[in-house]
Structure formats: C-alpha cells, structure tokens
Design goal:
Residues 5-62 form the HTH lysR-type domain. There is one protein chain. By secondary structure, the chain is of the alpha/beta class. It has helices at residues 7-19, 22-29, 33-47, 63-86, 89-93, 101-108, 112-118, 169-172, 194-202, 219-227, 241-246, 275-288; strands at 52-55, 58-61, 94-98, 123-127, 138-143, 151-164, 182-187, 190-191, 214-216, 232-236, 250-251, 257-267. The chain folds into 3 domains: 7-86, Arc Repressor Mutant, subunit A (Orthogonal Bundle); 90-155 and 263-288, Periplasmic binding protein-like II (D-Maltodextrin-Binding Protein, domain 2), CATH 3.40.190; 157-259, 3-Layer(aba) Sandwich (D-Maltodextrin-Binding Protein, domain 2). α1 packs across α2. The longest helix is centred in the first third of the chain and has 24 residues, at 63-86. The model has no long low-confidence stretch (mean pLDDT 90).
Length: 289
C-alpha cells in the first residue's frame, strides 16, 4: 500500500510553491490563508523537512521544496491528462448557469457572443429556473446576502434611476399629481421598496404617496409598461442601459439610489476551481469593470 501524504496538502503546496505566497494561494483555492498554512505545516511534519524559508513578507522554497514541487507538477500533469482522456468530452465542455430571467434577457444574453468568441470550446446553457435534471456550475442570484456554504460574491448592487419616456419628462417634474402612475415591481409577493427609497432620497416622501400605482410580477413587464407610456418607474440602470443609450427612455432626475438588493455569483463547493467556472467568473468581472 502506498505511503502518501494528503493529496489536498500536496495540491495546496503546489499552488503555494508556484505563487510563493500563502495569501495568493488561498485566493486561488478559495480557502483562508490559515487553511493553507495548516496544510503546509502538516505536509512538512509528515516529510520531516521544511519546504519554505519564511521571511518577512516573503517566501522562498528550500532545496527540498523545489525538488518536491517539480515532481508534484509532473505527477499532477499526468493525472490531469489521464482524467481528461477518459472523461466525457461533451460533459467537460458544458457550462450550465442559473440566471434570473430579466438579467439573462436584458444584460447577459447580448454579451455572451463575446464570451463564446473567447472560449469557443465551452457550450453555455443559461437557465432561468432550477431543474433536478441539470447540474449547475454556478448561479447568478438576486438577493441581499451571500449564500451559505457556497463561494458567494456580490457582482453589483442595484443602482436605481428614475425613468420615463422622453416626452413625459415635464410631467415627471410634478410627481405629486402622478402618484397613480407609479410603476412597481413585485418580489416574493411584495413590492420592492425602490420608489419609497428614491422618494426619501429626493426629499419627496411627504408629497408623493409611494403606495399608489401599478404593480408587475417581473421587471420586464414593468419596462414594457414604461416604454408604452403607462407611467414612471425607478429601475436598475444595468437593465435599461440600451434604452437609455438609444434615447428610448430618459432619466428625469440625477438622484440615484444604491441597493439594498444586488446580484450575486454563487459557486457550489464542488464546482470551485473548475477551469470553465474560473473563466466565466473572470469574464463577468471584466464585463462589470
């Protein structure tokens, strides 16, 4: 029976040895710096030799560390090649993403052409609702908090702007008379507080009744009503960027309100580190930069 240390410890050492930084290794592996330090310490205890020279704000490999890193890289390369040759190539190339329908339609879909050009080997499938028949690699989720037991990061907070048709801007200057034409979006059966928050920020909460107006179950419905001239809305500007750029909608006030909801990227623990997921996450950050 082979006498081997923990493969996890060997993998952590490989990353730390390449980076020469426990902090950078922790970021790459999506673990804490303390977890990296513990794995390295356990490996050194098992081997009975130090693998790093720890200096102030700097790491260097010992002779034993350099020798082990070279052998480990060769070994992991052989394992990766063997697994890649056996694994179903169609499964390996698929990237399944769960995305809220409005974000998928109004923001993500028109950007995926660029993603496909950069990563033509990946077959992307975008779903707008969970399915027991699909293994999702990651999810973009609308919410207020990180998702437990996942790598969960905020992509962007909602940035709400007040908008209407360009020829309705004069009416928008007297919202007291237009309270019945406020357009609201429902989330889990309740109106999102975007109008109340915006009126508060604009100093109009005493003059305009935020509880009046029409409600819609999706943002797309509210935007369609807005473009038809039904009323006035406070909308997340990423969702209407094209309409604002093309002049089909107009912002009738410079006052903007951030949050409290936003869009999160959630990656299950078992999908972290997969190259296709890493590529997608890095690409998302580029799009939002």
């Amino acid at each position: 029976m082979r006498q081997l240390p923990s493969l996890t410890a060997l993998r952590v050492f490989e990353v730390a040895g390449k980076q020469l930084s426990f902090t950078m290794a922790a970021k790459q592996l999506y673990v804490t710096q303390g977890a990296v330090s513990r794995q390295i310490k356990q490996l050194e205890d098992y081997l009975g030799v130090p693998l790093f020279v720890r200096m102030h704000h700097k790491l260097e490999l010992t002779d034993s560390g350099r020798q082990l890193l070279q052998k480990i890289e060769q070994s992991f390369d052989l394992i990766e090649t063997a697994v890649t040759e056996i694994r179903d190539p169609k499964l390996r190339q698929k990237l399944n993403i769960l995305v809220p329908p409005t974000l998928a339609t109004r923001w993500l879909a028109r950007r995926l052409t660029e993603f496909h050009k950069r990563f033509p080997e990946l077959e992307v499938s975008v779903y707008d609702h969970p399915s027991e028949h699909v293994l999702f690699d990651c999810e973009i989720r609308f919410g207020r908090m990180a998702k437990p037991k996942h790598f969960s990061e905020m992509l962007f907070l909602e940035q709400h702007v007040p908008v209407c048709l360009p020829d309705m801007i004069d009416r928008a200057q007297n919202l007291t008379l237009e309270a019945g034409n406020l357009l609201h979006i429902l989330h889990e059966g309740e109106r999102l507080p975007v109008w109340r928050d915006w009126l508060e920020a604009a100093g109009l909460h005493q003059q305009v009744d935020a509880d009046r107006g029409l409600s819609f179950s999706t943002l797309d419905q509210a935007i369609s009503a807005l473009k038809a001239g039904t009323g006035f809305a406070v909308i997340e500007k990423h969702m209407i960027s094209r309409e604002l750029e093309e002049g089909r909608l107009a912002q009738f006030s410079d006052i903007e309100v951030s949050g409290p909801y936003g869009y999160w990227l959630d990656i299950p623990p078992e999908r972290q580190g997969l190259s296709k997921v890493v590529f997608f996450r890095e690409w998302l950050h580029e799009q939002l930069a």
